[in-house]
Amino acid sequence: MINWVHPGLIVIIGSLLIPFMPKGKIKQGYLLLLPLLAFISVVLTPEGTYGVYTFLNEQVVFGRVDKLAKCFAFIFTLMLFIAMIYGMRQKENGHHIAGFFYAGSALGAVFAGDLLSFLCFWEIMAFASVYLVTFNKNKRSYKAAYRYILVHATGGVILMGGILLYYFENHTLAFNLMEFSGWPTLPTGLILLGFAINAGFPLLGGWLPDAYPESTIPGGVLMATFTTKTAVYALVRGFAGADILIWIGAIMALYAVAYATVESDMRKLFAHHIMSQIGYMVVGIGIGTKLAVDGAVALGFTHILYMGLLFMASGSVIYVTGKRNLKDTGNLYKKMPITLIFFMIGGFALSGAPLFAGFASKPMILSAAAEQQLTIPWILLMIAAAGTFLSTTLKMPYLVFFGKDKTKNLDVPKQEPPRNMMIGMTLAAIACIVVGVWPQGLYSLLPYGGNYSPYTIDHVVWTVQLMLFTWFGFYLLLKMIKGKHMINLDFDWIYRKGAKVFYQLVAKTIVTPVDTVVSTIYMPLFVRPGQWIANKCFVFDYDVIDGVVRWVARSASSYSIWSSKQSLRFDQRIVDGLVNGVAGFMTGLAGVLRRFQTGMVRDYAFAVIIGLVVLVNIFFFVVIK
């Protein structure tokens, strides 16, 4: 009896039937049915271990269901349902299949109880997500997809190497909390590095603002949901309490938000904020206390909601106007007022404003840092919070919907995006508000129960003061805020720009001198003797081989002519003569026989009598004798 159906298996296998679904409402209903079934499976599955198999004397566990796994699986399936509503108008079946494979592999990684199955789902997730970038079908998306898969394939190889070394060192593939005191060992260090690439750590996350904005509009919502949050889950599972993560996360939060404040591309700006928010989560994971871990998981949960909403809102603007750079937007507040509201809800939730989702999770990490007296990380996180509020809740809506140039977007009709996109944003916005107003519902899903109360006077007053001071600074600098067309490169400069410089340097300093030396030696020793041999071979081929071939051809031609003449003579004299002779004989015989055909009875009677006389003589003189 089957006691558990893997939610990831539901969406992966179910997606293979999408091309066979009739177009229209049946297909749309099926796209919503798959995440709904996966969500029900997550909710109804009790905690326990399922899908255990033995491979090379090691247990492969596909279903380790505990509170940590269920919390991430809960929000994954919920956001997949919302994203399917939002992206229902996407026509390509391949896009939907890639999206379901992406989500299904993320669910597979979350429920994996061993490093081997985790690695398999981890790699499927990378290769499935890259297709969401290529479906934009332009030169920029193809280049971004190529860089994206190179980075993630490299990260996968590093992770696989770490897992192999970890197995040889510990003789187990079980995916549990790893020993980590001070600096990591080589196996755990490689595993951590593999997770860090997907999480977008500083100097490792250039792929994120490079690839996410180039994906399709609904594909961006999915990409903002799964890859980095699966990495957060992996860090919680394997490295909770690793002190080094506290400082990495704090630097990451501030480092990424600095890029976001100067970014001009809407979706790139949000991509930088994804990395900044991951920094908060990494700090909580590094602290490792129950409150901190619950805070990291809660922030991952809420981050999926409000970042999905912001990607949907920005995607709606791009859908209606065709523009994604802040320099080209503005004056949309009367034409897309509901989208503006969704922008503000997502921005307030991202900034951690009271009554919104971010306020239910961010204070948990800040409180955990304060309890452990981590003053510098706490200060860095607060600065990052101010930058987040500045760039997402103030700068972004101002430049997109208001702006100083009132002539912008006059040709854009007054309209909101299609109904399905509005429904998707509405559901995400409601979820952001519900979680913010009633955080205890979220806390009940957390690994340690989330015994926390965010709505204290200190938290509310401090948050409101921070936002007011940030708004005041924004107001003073309002005249200086402009959108610009620019590309802000991170460490990806190494492989996007630096590679060209490296190639040129190598060409001038190494390749050219080596080529000169090799050419000087190569010409007299190889090229010229080769030319002489080639000439001799040509002469031999022309004079000998071709000569023989030509003689055979001429001989065959002469024989063919003689043979054809003889055949003609035989045909004319023998065959035609025989045929003509037989024909003449038959013609003469027919002429003789015609004389007997007089048409008179007496002639025929006389012929019969003559015949009988001949037969009687033959009978008596030949047969009887």
Describe the protein's architecture and organization.
The chain has 625 residues and is mostly helical. 73% of the residues lie in helices and 3% in strands. The protein has helices at 7-15, 25-44, 67-86, 93-111, 115-134, 139-170, 186-199, 207-211, 217-223, 227-239, 244-262, 266-287, 290-321, 337-351, 362-371, 375-402, 419-437, 439-443, 457-476, 493-595, 601-624, and strands at 48-55, 58-65. Strands 1-2 form a two-stranded antiparallel sheet. Helix 3 (67-86) runs antiparallel to helix 4 (93-111), helix 3 packs antiparallel against helix 17 (419-437) and helix 4 packs antiparallel against helix 5. The longest helix has 103 residues, at 493-595. The relative contact order is 0.07. The mean pLDDT is 85.
Please name the defining characteristics of this protein.
single chain, two-stranded antiparallel ribbon, 625 residues, elongated, mainly alpha, 73% helix
